[in-house]
Write a sequence for this structure.
């Protein structure tokens, strides 16, 4: 029985060649590919101030730290997300305030968002779930009016669009992940997009212990004691090796995304008349990048187990984070739609690596699962 994966790691000869080249030069930690990758991302994302870092969680922590989120502050966010996005909130001592989603969707509820704002609200994290952009324009307007810093979590939403503008264009900051299962992967890594040059410069320093590399070494190549470190940072740089892997994929990202969108269109047509399945539609005026295709099904756990047993890898995608004791807020009566979503959501494969026969098999096994 052929196995159909939900996610796939991008790997081809260009990636292997780039890896081998860097390994042979010995310039693994630092080197020219870091700047080259940042320039390529700047062009791809149509953004001026792009800084690469070691991983997305570190990226979010550094942003929280930079804008002054501290112990006791509140961060608005949706519970149905990845711990990679929310761990920094607890780590810095702030409190997440869980915003509900709209009924039978993954999109943040504007009504719930506005009701959740208090005097302690310092920042909001807006997650484009699985590459499905939500009402980011509306949230951005509210944040601007209320003086709330807005961070777009574009984790797996590379090249998704809202009204023709790329996600990551609406917040004060945005983060993108290059974890292996993403559309563009660098083994591990992330990027921070800043609106202001001074913020980008700050991230550049604190991603590497607070060092200003333009003055760090003297003419002899030794550490210059006159180069001050005003703000201690972390060892969170993206390596030259990771960046080289990213550079090798930049030109092919658009083609892969086109294949994904074509697959989603095909699956949507197949599933249109299938009873017991609701395809989560894209939000108005958006073009998702589809990390996976999202459905709502009754008896989700039974369907999930059946499909996995028959070779089609599916998932409930995330565990809503409010259940974790590190956040000290297990109560979910005020986010009923999020709790309902957790019970019914099913992510099915739609990736660029799938053939038409694979798509047929996904639908066939899903229909069989619904009949059991």
């Amino acid at each position: 029985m052929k196995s159909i994966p939900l996610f796939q790691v991008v790997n081809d000869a260009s990636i292997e060649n780039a890896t081998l080249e860097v390994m042979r030069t010995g310039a693994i930690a630092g080197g020219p590919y870091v700047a080259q990758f940042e320039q390529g991302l700047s062009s791809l994302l149509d953004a001026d101030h792009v800084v690469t870092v070691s991983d997305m969680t570190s990226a979010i922590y550094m942003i929280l730290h930079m804008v002054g989120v501290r112990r006791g502050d509140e961060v608005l966010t949706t519970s149905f997300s990845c711990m990679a996005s929310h761990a920094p909130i607890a780590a810095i001592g702030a409190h997440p305030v869980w915003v509900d989603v709209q009924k039978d969707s993954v999109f943040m509820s504007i009504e719930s968002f506005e009701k959740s704002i208090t005097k302690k609200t310092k920042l909001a994290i807006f997650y484009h779930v699985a590459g499905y952009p939500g009402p980011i324009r509306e949230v951005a307007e509210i944040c601007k009016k209320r003086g709330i810093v807005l961070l777009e979590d574009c984790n797996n939403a590379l090249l998704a669009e809202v009204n023709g503008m790329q996600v990551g264009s609406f917040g004060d900051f945005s983060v993108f992940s290059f974890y292996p299962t993403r559309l563009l992967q660098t083994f591990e890594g992330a990027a921070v997009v800043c609106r202001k040059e001074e913020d980008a410069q700050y991230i550049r320093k604190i991603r590497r212990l607070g060092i200003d590399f333009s003055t760090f070494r003297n003419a002899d190549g030794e550490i210059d004691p006159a180069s001050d470190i005003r703000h201690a940072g972390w060892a969170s740089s993206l390596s030259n090796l990771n960046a080289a892997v990213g550079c090798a994929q930049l030109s092919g990202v658009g083609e892969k995304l086109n294949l994904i969108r074509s697959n989603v269109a095909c699956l949507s047509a197949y599933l249109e008349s299938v009873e017991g399945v609701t395809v989560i539609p894209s939000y108005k005026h958006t073009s998702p990048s589809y990390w996976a295709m999202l459905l709502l099904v009754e008896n989700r756990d039974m369907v999930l187990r059946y499909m996995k047993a028959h070779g089609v890898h599916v998932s409930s995608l995330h565990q809503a984070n409010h259940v974790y004791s590190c956040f000290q807020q297990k109560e979910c009566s005020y986010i009923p739609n999020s709790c309902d979503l957790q019970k019914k959501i099913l992510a099915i494969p739609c990736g660029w690596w799938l053939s038409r026969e694979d798509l047929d098999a996904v639908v066939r096994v899903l229909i069989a699962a619904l009949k059991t």
Q: What stands out?
A: The domain at 253-371 is CATH 3.90.1150.10 (Aspartate Aminotransferase, domain 1).
